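Notebook, p. 212. Picked up where the previous page left off. The plan for this session was modest: take the two constructs that came back from the sequencing core last week, fold each one, and keep the raw output in the notebook itself so nobody has to go hunting through shared drives later. Recording the first one now, exactly as returned: residue sequence, then the structure token string.
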Amino acid sequence: MSEDDEKNPARKVITDYAQSHFRYFRTADGTVYAQKNGHPVARPMRSQGTTGSHRQELMVGLFKDGVGVFNGTALKEALDLIEALALYEDTHAVNIRVAPGFDGATWLDLGRNDGQSVRIHPTGWDILTPDPREVCWRRTQLTGELPLPAKDTGGKGIDALMRLCNFATAETECLAIAWLIGCLGPSVPVPAPFLTGPQGAGKSTGGRMLVRIIEGMSGDLRRAPKDEENLIAAVAAGWVTALDNLSHMTPDLSDAMCCIVTGAESVKRALFTDGDVFRVGYRRPLLLTGIDVGVIRPDLAERLLPLRLERPRVRRTEAELWAEYAEVLPVVLGSLLDLAVKVRAAEAETPTDLRMADFAHLCAQLDAATGLGALAAYRASLDDLNDDVIEGDLLAQTVLAHASTLEPGVEQRMTSTEWLHCLTRLYSGEDFRPLPKGWPTTGKVLSDRLKRLQPTLAARGVLIDSGRTKEGRYIEMTRSPAPPEHEQQAF
């Protein structure tokens, strides 16, 4: 230290150095971040990680610049003051892996130490170090490094990826491409691909290949956490979350996946406090693999994207397969970026009858740019999922059986209790067969189940509505006079 430094308290020396070498700001939820001047990566002030925390970054800078080595008390006092001052600074967003930029551009974090990233803009894409005022990256242990994407690939990367994956049909391939392009958009909710197929079809390998295009070679599949809190923690720390070998899906896990796909916020009490809360907002791309997950709930079915794989004719060793994948990954990423630019520039109408309208619009843009038929494939996949929901729900089957006896366009209105008696009699039949487990026991339970089944039944031409008159509440069932509009368009 210099003589002037020896006259100053250590905490002031640290504070002066920190404020001259780092930018401190807060996010909308009040979390304070530190960002080295001119570098796009921001680190949370409160991070106590064993590697890469701002405390360590500051200690190393003080030592290398010859300012000195300070004890823990001085560092804590200085960081506490800096954090308090940062609460009065303007807010700035931090992003993991993808981020919105200026003038309609988006950014893809390559996870490199030098901060180089990909800027995707309306006229192309470039490899640049982003201005910290435009984008701030947050890195976690799940942020892997991506290779520098190759330029002028001529679409060879997409062809190479399809050769490595065992997708069963061309329709499945175009849906996988649409999902990958959607993962490059920070504001586009995308359905969760569900890789299915017979045993030995390479579902886990195909899932890893798709994930590693976005997350790098360190990206991998995980077992589904046993509780929602651990699932949210894993989702919030990365961009693409991939869950492997699902064989059963509980109602709580199904609801959590719906929230992950379309976005939600989790609030819990902050550690070591009585009244403070900790907020975690998340909306992430999700990928699932498995042979069969049993009964799929209707709300999750609208957010899934089934991708069927087939068993490969020729088996290869893991070493050979991943060596080739690592070699072509820069070309694959470059081709995907080229295609993303073309798709975003394409003009297409947004389908208004599908739940995931943003993804449906992206499929329509992909069709306009390439003619692959992604939107028709997406509609067909949703139709297959509706069949899965109906096959696994005896109530839905009973409602459709009753609706088949109605005159098209004629409304049938009853109370929920009356509907329960009607559908129960229809299911039991003349032989009074026993009711299955989970059959509604009250009119309220039936009403709630029908609300969940509304989209599925509507896709089969049965409209369910509810309302209230002076006599009380009612449920109304109508059989459509013609097939739904989207079924007509699918042919």
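Okay, moving on. Second construct, recorded in the same format:
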Amino acid sequence: MKTWLSARPLPNFDTIYALLRIVTGLFMAFHGWEVFNATQMADNAKWLTDLHFPAPALMSYLGKGAEFASGILLTIGLFTRFATIPMILTMLGVAFGMGHGKVWYEDQHPFMFVLLGVLFLSGGAGKWSADAGVEK
């Protein structure tokens, strides 16, 4: 009981943190996978045109590319702090630019990814990551 009331992390924190990072990375990569679908990207660019985004086709590819690349890097835990920056910026764009400030946007939760990005930006990749192997 003393462990549960302590401010210290639980003994299995490294594993839980790694699972959270990996799952977040897989979700981001899944959302970014659309970058390989020309029809979907054209639809995204049209949507951004309707929302009056500048350079909608470019912004569509940048956003989906950032989601995909950040997701892959987060999943393996490589360059984690750098990978979270485009993820955070993209998800802020989705939440506040496309979603007009709705942090729970339709069936997606872009602001949750912003918060997770801040967690991984401040906490790094953790013990079970490629970044941890580079540090040795």
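Notes on construct two before I forget. The chain is about 70% helix and 0% strand.
Flagging for discussion at group meeting.
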